[in-house]
Amino acid sequence: MSTTTPTTTSTAGSKAVSTTASVPLTAKTRAAAPSAATTQTNWQSVRDEVLRRIHTREWKPGDQIPKEVELAEELGCARATVNRALRELAAEGFLDRRRKAGTRVATHPVRRAKLDIPVIRLEIEGRGQKYAYGLLYSERRTPPPEICTNLGVTPDNDMLHITSLHLADGKPYMFEERWVSVAATPQIADADLSKISANEWLVLHAPYTKGDISFSAVLASDTEARILRTHKDAPLFLIERTTWEGENGITSARLLFAPGYRMHSAI
Amino acid sequence: MSTTTPTTTSTAGSKAVSTTASVPLTAKTRAAAPSAATTQTNWQSVRDEVLRRIHTREWKPGDQIPKEVELAEELGCARATVNRALRELAAEGFLDRRRKAGTRVATHPVRRAKLDIPVIRLEIEGRGQKYAYGLLYSERRTPPPEICTNLGVTPDNDMLHITSLHLADGKPYMFEERWVSVAATPQIADADLSKISANEWLVLHAPYTKGDISFSAVLASDTEARILRTHKDAPLFLIERTTWEGENGITSARLLFAPGYRMHSAI
DNA sequence: AGTGTTATTATGTACGTACATATTATATTT
DNA sequence: AAATATAATATGTACGTACATAATAACACT
Which of A218, B7, B120, B143 has the fewest CB atoms within 10 Å, counting from its CB? Predict the structure, then answer.
């Protein structure tokens, strides 16, 4: 900082060059000196300090906070470090940043819940339950109109219609009804979908560029109730997913969860 | 700016110094030369190129990808740039990175759906509908046991019990039942909760450090059905939220959405 | 063969400099 | 006063260097 320093040449040189093998003495010392765990003048510290000031209402929603250079100076680190911290906080919705206008505490902190959507098998096994899977039905046929609309394919498209049941500790957990475009992923015709679920097969073999997911509550139909071993009109949690590779619709699925299912997330 | 640069020395100097006012000629040229939009040798390009290779299955799930220095060389940028791109992709679940072990394409791409959880008012207004809000009930009382457990407070805690209804275009949209710890946010006692929803008031005045959210499907009770102007045993989408400031429970809420509600997200 | 120690290595991150870009603020012209 | 050009400024990002850290690989030793 303060620039010029005509003789110093390369930026961080003063730290490591002259003093040969000595421990760096500048900002780094503060970081290394404290004993135990994560006490460093790093970007995480900056993030935490900023968060602290927001939570203590030292900086209130709508307030403009000091500019990067000022914060960097105050906290004893480089602007890049402050930048990284503030960038993360902005991405999480705590801050609003605009060039020239500066950085403000978000007035409507749109909290971004990060929903991990894992493969069902891993979700179940992750809870220490035994996963099982059964293929109920699999057939190649032309899709109904609403699926065509969803995926943006023509009605004569060659598709695979699959229904299957996922079980946790032997109990029905999720009922999956899925349409897969054979044109988009020809190899699935050869896959043994009684061994591996279509869900998991697709994750491994058909990466997508665009996906859409929606969550809602529905009543169990007769069939669905029988399969999930519950009663008609039970409230079911429904996830509908559609994925595309470029413009080509790959698959569209309805995932119906047994009563009592809760999807969790921390913010 | 630029200042000084007496003998060049400083790292990127070669770019700008010698050729005076000319356009930088090295890596930057490739960036600036193409005509239209976002063609740059920046971290976004790196990210896109890596994503492309994943989608084209040039790099398959489980594969180890080149190390940062190699990619940087191949793509003509600094390692820091590659690092940023790969870091983002890892955060989104496309890559698994481990020190020394290198970077691999994620075998189970746990897609992280970013669920924006806005203030209800903004959600409704964002769709161009008219938002309205009615306070149904508000009373200070001691909470029932399950709320105490949720929030980790003692049963004698002074709390505010609030129920309210949010409407879109005059139609019931969401029924909110909420407990707020008055000890944690004393100012709420003075707020006029018939003007501003507790939801929105809390967002503005009670930032939290920890939040928990869960989604499920339930049947409408008699009361709930009446309030949401639907019939008993209708399937309702339920969001349960609890937030803490440090160790202090602030609020716990049940948000019951009218039938037909769908929560959306793109992946 | 098994165990502990020491290199080696790829990612993680901090730093300062340089420049790009989007906005806002100011000056200038009509 | 309104419109337009110009300067100022905060964030955005690229670069190279340096070092930290975690995890593996190689090695020595029993």
Answer: B7
